[in-house]
Design brief:
The chain is an alpha/beta fold. The chain has one domain: Rossmann fold (3-Layer(aba) Sandwich). It is 32% helix and 25% strand. It contains eight helices and ten strands. The strands form two sheets. It has a six-stranded mixed β-sheet with strand order 6-7-8-3-9-10, with helices on both faces. Strands 2-1-4-5 form a four-stranded antiparallel β-sheet, covered by helices on one side. Helix 3 runs parallel beside helix 5 and helix 5 packs parallel to helix 6.
Length: 243
């Protein structure tokens, strides 16, 4: 099966600091990949670079066989690559419904074989949002805001969904709720996911594969099933493994 998202020798910097070092990765259609690593490992920069929010210094990015490397962020959204950023970044004074409709205005074309995401379909996939549609986004709980941010990204008709810091700042109950939503998306819509997760156990339990970043490089790439947690911990601290 051909990859739906591919990065080749990707490099990105913050001034003189190289944050992403020649990273190559592939996601297959419908696959869930968890990106783990310590603070400062380059996880957020990698997602932002893929999405076009952070400039690419070198390398290339491909989505469904189309190179996106020179395209700005809004064009990548229209091609089917959506980012749920750290901090959710909803418009606090707008209702959940208004946030979703705003995202819909910037969506790309519907791709062959894909059903278009409407508010009705989003609510069906994320039923917890139904009673919140007319509530200001700034009045939502952390878990509710994360669900609304995922829904906003879905309204752009993504082929691949990038989610940064899935559980950051959320209560255990809210994290459980968010992962139930993600499981529904994966099961019902076949959504391809690349997510950054601090909770290693959660990442290994949910994802098909795990990638560990250290100092901007992938130092472990392995299937999540049967993966020894100690190997991931070692990768955090300097022992490299590939699979």
């Amino acid at each position: 099966m051909n990859p739906i998202l591919e990065a080749r020798e990707l490099r990105a910097s913050h001034g003189q600091l190289v944050a992403v070092r020649d990273v190559s990765l592939e996601l297959k259609p419908g696959e869930t990949v968890a990106l783990v690593g310590s603070n400062g490992a380059g996880k957020t920069t990698l997602l932002r670079t893929l999405a076009g929010v952070h400039p690419t210094q070198a390398g290339s990015i491909w989505l469904g066989g189309t190179e996106l490397s020179a395209q700005p962020a809004h064009r990548r959204v229209q091609q089917g690559l959506a980012l749920v950023p750290e901090g959710r970044r909803l418009f606090a004074d707008m209702t959940v419904r208004e946030n979703l409709l705003l995202a819909q205005e910037h969506r790309g074309r519907q791709r062959d074989g894909d059903a278009s995401w409407s508010i009705e379909r989003v609510v069906q996939a994320l039923p917890a949002l139904k009673p919140l549609m007319h509530r200001p986004a700034g009045a939502l709980s952390g878990g509710q805001r994360q669900a609304a941010a995922i829904a906003r990204a879905l309204m752009t008709n993504p082929t691949v969904l990038l989610i940064d810091e899935v559980s950051l700042g959320l209560s255990p109950r809210a994290v459980d709720e968010v992962y139930r939503h993600l499981e529904e998306l994966r099961r019902e819509a076949g959504t391809t996911l690349l997510l950054v997760e601090q909770d290693l156990g959660r990442a290994m339990a949910f994802a098909d594969r795990v990638l560990c970043l250290r100092e901007g490089r992938i130092v472990l790439a392995a299937a999540a099933a049967g993966l020894d947690r100690n190997l991931v911990t070692e990768a955090y601290f300097g022992v490299e493994h590939t699979a």
